[in-house]
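Team,

Forwarding the record for the chain on the shared tracking sheet. I've put the sequence and predicted structure together so nobody has to dig through attachments.
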Amino acid sequence: MIDRYPLAYLPTPIEPLPGLTRYFGSAQIYIKRDDLTGLGIGGNKTRKLEYLLADALKQGSKTLMSTGAVQSNHCRQVAAAAAKAGLECILVLAGDEPAERQGNLLLDYLSGAKTLFVKQPERDAELQRAFEEAVAEGKKPYLIPYGGSSAIGAVGYLEAMHELKDQGFTPDWIVFASSSGGTHAGMALGARVYGLKAKVLGIGIDNLNINFSSTIANLANETARQLGQDVRLEPTDILLNEEYCQTGYGKLQPAEIDAIKLFASKDGILLDPVYTGRAAAGMLDLIRKGFFKPNEKLLFWHTGGTPALFAEPYQAMLGA
């Protein structure tokens, strides 16, 4: 069994979205509120960090290190987890240092993280350099991969599917933002292990131009192996829609702004401009196209990220 360090407020609630359901008049739309996991304003990475932090402490680490974009939701939660456990935190952020610290970046600072800004093509090399420097300085760093997407991190969402089963809610579809792969791998594996019938559909966030379903299946299988589960997923078992990420990561589009406004104005739910905004736009487009059968239950799994809204200028949100 993989150790766990409790960080999240669990179980997260499941709520109906009556405003959106009435607006579309077909599928029944619900939401799973992983934006309410609590740590550093919450989000899906908190579930992963419960297992990653436990592993870091087991190894005697003194510092958590990770990487992401300047407005990384993942890095914000890594910084908060480090603060809660009394560890140092070093974040290598891909992008230019902004003139003002807003959104997630402000929360990184408040949690006490050291932030290093690097060019995107140099991110991995700079992360390795910073890691080696931390080792030399006796900081005993623990390197958390991008998005917390490792076999250990994926356990968080395998167990999230157990939580969903215990809540007694039986959706026909689970729709969510799929990016670095750990959440998707854990959900797909958890559905198989715990016998959930729902179809697990990830909406791609990054335009990677690779067969990412294979990457997700491989991560799910490595997680199963570490847990001693005799389960194997094939790439064809991974439902991943990449139609909505062709503009590239973090490039806000009118459909995403429209989805953010609809969730807020119809049901008072705040999404983020990178992940849940894009995933919601994909789900709403699929509803409009009749992809889902009438009266099917859709569970939109809110993976958090709301602080990134506060780094967006008002004018950007008028673009729809």
